[in-house]
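Hello,

Our lab assistant flagged a job as stuck in the queue for most of the afternoon. It eventually completed. Since we weren't sure the result was trustworthy after the delay, we are filing this so someone can double-check. Below is the sequence as submitted and the structure that was eventually returned. Let us know if re-running is recommended.
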Amino acid sequence: MSDPGPCGPPRRQWPQVVLLAALLVAACCAAVVGVLAGAWSRESAGTVRITYEVTGTAKGVTLTFPVWRDGRLSTERVTVRRLPWTGEVETRGFLKGGSFTATLGRSGGEVACAVTVDDGTYRTASAAGAFATAVCGGF
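-- returned structure --
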């Protein structure tokens, strides 16, 4: 039988190493969540101006677009008989990822949409034909 020595049998180190690694991962995750929450808070607290524009030859175009009011998202739907059309929203609580659509009616024609956001985000799309839809998304 071997002598355990003055300090007793050797201790296993792997449980402490696993615990330390788990604590480091948890601390890193908490830091990332904190940074993302701060960025979201700053973005949603600022005032943003969003401009929607529609041009083309179509008559009877249905427009669907997001509107942010007091941090709440709602969808507006407007039917426009003649183009061009422009709408502007100034809002607080803006979150990225909106979608602006211009849908042609049975009579068809051509339509183009554009969205501009304060920070320079600019999206465009176009469509032609009966019931076609132009989608300006991801602003």
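-- support follow-up --
The delay was a queue issue, not a problem with the job. The result is valid. The two ends are 74 Å apart (CA to CA). The first strand starts at residue 47 and ends at 56.
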